[in-house]
Fold:
Amino acid sequence: MPSGDSPKKVALITGITGQDGSYLTELLLGKGYIIHGLVRRSSSTIRHRIDRLFEDRSIYGEQLFLHYADLEDLTTIRRILTKTQPDELYHLAGQSHVGTSFEIPESTCQFTAMGTLNLLEIVRDLPSRPRFLYASSSEIFGRPEKYPQTESSSYRPTSPYGVAKAFATNMVRVYRDSYDVFGVNAICYNHESPRRGESFVTRKITRAAAAISAGRQTSLAMGNINARRDWGYAPEYVEAMWRMLQLDAPEDFVLATGKQHSVQEFLDAAFKQVGLSWSDYYRRVDKYCRPSEPGELVGDASKAYERLGWRPEVDFQSLVGIMVEADVQRIQQSASELGKATSAP
Ligand code: G4F
Structure:
């Protein structure tokens, strides 16, 4: 290293292959970080969101490193943390589907609640502790007494997922207050992007709008379309997460737009963009309805604005526009690749 250069910061990200993990990785690469990511080993590694980085030899093996570990592999995680000595640890991994948590409550709690506690225990014992950010969720507020919610609103979760997240969020606070761990909760409201998993409602809708307009799908089976959410744009949320770990002292923050829209409004905007009417294709199917839904989840992010200088810029219409456009392009690209393959001699 040339004299005068400060050493590069090191970050470790759990959930690096997810929507937020991939955006955070790009953000930190741009800031010159060395990044270590934990990847779950399964029969098929789902890594498509970071494939471009993985295949770039000037990045992978130089600035970006992946390690296989589940959140249950405590010895492995301890070893990776001891070896890589991160300055910042972003804990984004977890079973993130609220609906699925009703079907698999035990593994959801094991992974999301206990997985976070295990990680905090490891961090607590490290001689040189990283700053720790936990990606918490508006689901902790469940059926809130008041709206909009702030960092001090009470936790009243309505799903196994929300309960697991509330446990983990409280544990971060306990480790901060009891052991002086620099631990913070980013209490994130829904945040979406073209990289959103296909089983979440926004992406399910934008994919369907694109596929129906291309003649590849004929209908869209959905659950409760009266549900309302505070939807923001994911790349902006990871920027706030990074800013949280740059503060002098650890604090929790609500990250939200402060505006609510219904699933039906999302449907309407997405289908309009491709010149269709959603009601011609929509079918209500009970299996997509949840045993219980949260109440009015809408966040007040004024603390993030004041302390982090963070304010979401991408509004609801723009978010829908970005996502539909990306899915239309994906379909056009796959059609042209298929065309090339079938016309090959
Ligand atoms: O897109 P969703 O599955 O997101 P949900 O449950 O709000 O959770 C997301 O946001 C949380 C807060 O940030 C995160 F903690 C969590 O990890 C995840 O990222 O569902 C949104 C709404 C729900 O009310 C659901 O009942 O859409 C309703 N919905 C209606 N039909 C549907 C469907 N949701 C899904 N996934 N699929 C449907 O067919």
